[in-house]
Amino acid sequence: MTRNQSIDILEVTTGREIWMMAAATSDEFRDGFPFLAGQLWLDLLNTTSTPGGVAQDLIATPGDAARWLAASGLAGSTGTPTPDEIGAELRALREELRPAVENPARGEPLAESLMASVNRRLAGLCVLLQQRSEGFALSFVLDRGVAAPAALIARDFAAFVCEAEPDRLRHCASDCCSLVFYDRGRNNTRRWCSMSACGNRDKVARFRARRVGAGG
Fold this sequence. Notes:
The protein has helices at 3-11, 15-25, 40-45, 62-72, 83-97, 99-102, 112-122, 149-163, 195-213, and strands at residues 29-30, 33-34, 48-49, 56-57, 125-132, 135-142, 169-171, 180-182. The protein is an alpha+beta fold and 216 residues long. The strands form 4 sheets. Strands 1-2 form a two-stranded antiparallel ribbon. The chain has a two-stranded antiparallel sheet with strand order 3-4. A two-stranded antiparallel ribbon has the order 5-6.
């Protein structure tokens, strides 16, 4: 297949189809879920998405939530809650965290309700000092009888607001994409959630515009 043939095929796909094509070929997607945000709590937010303008909830069912946990590496932290409870807890935390994307500046007050939600979940975590062969380390231990994976996601968010650079948190530049990410690149110039999805779609659009402009 030549380069031009590849471009012609992509031209007739929708935004949703390009997103799914990337999901099938990129390591930024696992089992159909996007894990490209650079932060676990942002990956949770990205379980609601609008590829091609079509809204979807990727963890709407207990089975979907279990698959997402497995893909995220949190499947072993579920403890005693039922699949229904775990899914509901993840969806609740997702909505509580969502406003933090819109007002991410370090040092600015967080909503009291969000602080209470995060601290409630952090109460299920214990920190232990352990001695290992390579030296000392602090380890987080999950109380599986009380906490659920949401506690580990809350810890990821808590560390983020303490340490991250707010101007690196942004939305994908595509008008038809709702995914968010934290730019860990040296130059802080990342625009797309994924170069294999929205970045590629932008390249195709610019190629078509140039071809039309040249009378092709």
